[in-house]
Structure formats: structure tokens, C-alpha cells
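Anyone have C-alpha cells for Cardiolipin synthase B? Sequence:
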Amino acid sequence: MRHLTFTDGNQIALLHSGAGFYPALISAIDAARVEIYLETYIFSLDDTGVLVCEALQRAAGRGVVVYVINDWLGTGRENTNKLHLALSAAGVQHRSFNPWFRRGVARSHRKLCVVDRQVAFVGGLNINDDMVSDRDHMTPLPAPRWDFAVSILGPLVQEIYREVQAQWLRVGHMKLKARWRNFKRLRHGHSGPVHDQTQAALVVRDNFRNRRTIQRAYLQALGRARESAFLANPYFAPGRKMRRALEEAAMRGVKVTLLLGVGQFMMQDAVAHSFYPKLLRAGVRIIEYTRTELHAKVAVVDDKWATVGSSNYDGLSLFVNQEANVVVQDPAFAGFLRQEIEAGATQGRVVHLADFMHVPWYKRAAYGAAFLLYRTVIHIITLGKDA
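Reply: yep, here.
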């Protein structure tokens, strides 16, 4: 597992939901002159997806080399086939990650884009309409899905470029010797020049080089927290180390706030509820976001450390899937993101310990059963190595 390599001299802009992300992404694609790499978990051919697809097609039409990877399961077999036909016909090179589970159960949940090695995007947004539910594409949302991404200029773009380029090669049919050369090249990659601007690092999770990098970044930030920690995530089912870090931070006086998504999956909500009483007793503040779907995977600690990316707080993201986050060490950026999380918290319901004092026994039993089932599945998938 690699340590985080921070680079200075980066310009990082926070992009809020689709209204901030998709126009910036399409503008960058339309300005491309040489090369584009784009990775996403879901690439829907809805109104939003068509706009991005057409921008990629235009780029290929003017001679830009365009590489696109989508996850086969996340996008769906039928939609992946349609996407492949549409992109390939325009000269876009397209691959899907792990079709038919040929490489095991892991999925590529990353959302990354690099244009001309000059600008990069990292975040939680898929290529799909943020006014339509992720769970059911026929269900409209009452408000745009609550999510974030960042656009990046500066030395960190080169690190992200190496990562997306390597992923394109991995998804293809690489011989063993080529895979080993690629591994060594990434392992010994150098950082960019140092300037006195925003410090940031790319943190990825996979099942070879970086099995616990994202969880470790969270644990270190929570372990060093002294004043506050604001975390927002749609799926809350972390391992015991993450839960213990949240509890210990709250017990030593850190103001810990969890803003969590609810209502998408009954089983997921039940697992999360099984953790609530202990967290609440430790002093963790829990708020369930209710305005629309919460899809953001963001956190801010002490208004100094912040992260934006694709990793959920569950066993799949922390121990199985491929994920990508950016960690930013900049008070201005962290303070702005914290304000966004606090604004989101005003659109949610505060959970109190008293709410669980009168929960019927059968509901408590259901929460416990959901946790045991979830834990068993994760242990099987990870060969008992989740923590």
C-alpha cells in the first residue's frame, strides 16, 4: 500500500451536483485537442448521458484520441452494448470493466476524467440524469441528486493521468510481463513541482497495490481530529475500525457529524440503523438527508483536511471495489465544503438516541439480522479480511 503523495500548486474547484459538474465536463471535452480519458461506474444514455456522449463523439471527430471505460454491471449489459456501438461508430475507443464477472466480483466504481493532461475531474457523479433515481430510472427525484466532484488544474493531474492510463491498459488484454512493467511504473511515479498553492493527493483503492489506502486516509484524519469532523455518505456500513474511529473522536470532544442518505435500499438502512445506538451514545451526531437522494462521498476534518470522491462507507467500497478520492489540505477549500455539508444537514432529520429506546423488538431483531447477513456476505467476498 502506497502512502499518499501530496503535491502543491493545484487549483481545485468544488462542483456541486450535475448543474456544476456536467457543463464543466462537457466544456473541457469540447476544448480537448489531443487526448481524453473518462471512467465512470454508470454511463446512462438518458438526456444527460447523450450530451456527454455527443461531446465525446465531437472530440473524436476532430481527431482527439478518446478512451472511455464504464463498469459493465453499473451501466448494465444492454446499455453497455448500446454505448459501445454509439461511441465506436464515432471513433471513440471504449471498454467495459469486468463483463460477466470474469475477473471476480470487484467493480470499478471510480469517476475520473483527464483531458489533454491539463485538467482532471474526480468525484461521485456518474454520467446520468441527476433528476432521476439511481434505483429506478423511471422514478423522478424531487430535487437534483446531492453530490460533488472537483475539477483540478496543476501537478496532481499527472498523477491522475497515470492512473487512468494504467486502468485502460488493465481493462484490456495485457500480457503478464506488461502488467508487471505497468505496476512498477505506477509504484515509482514521481510527484510534480512544488508551489505554494493547494496541496492535494489522489487516493485510490484496488485489490493489488492499494487495498486499504482510502480507509487509512479516513482513519488518520479522524485520529488527528481536534475540533470537528463532518462526513456525508449515502451508504453507511463501515468496518469496526472506521466505526471505532468515529466513536473515539466524539468521545474526546470532537464534534462529529454524519450526514447519511436513506430510503434507497431497505437492507442498507437496516444495517446502518444497527450501528446508530452505539454511535449516538459516543456523542456522534447523525442526520438523515431527506430532501432527495444523497450520493455525495465527502468529508471535512478540522476545516483543514477534506476529501471528495467515489468511495462509500461500506464494505464494497472500502474492501472490494476500485475507488478514487482526492484528499485536499487547504483551509479555504475545506471550509467551503464544510459549509456545503452543513447546508445539506439543514435539509435532513436529526436522529436522537431516544428514537431507538422505543423501537419494537422485532425491528431491533431485523436490524441485527441485516447486519449479520451483511457481515457474512462481506466476509465471504473479502475472505474474512474486512476490518
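The longest strand covers residues 7-16.
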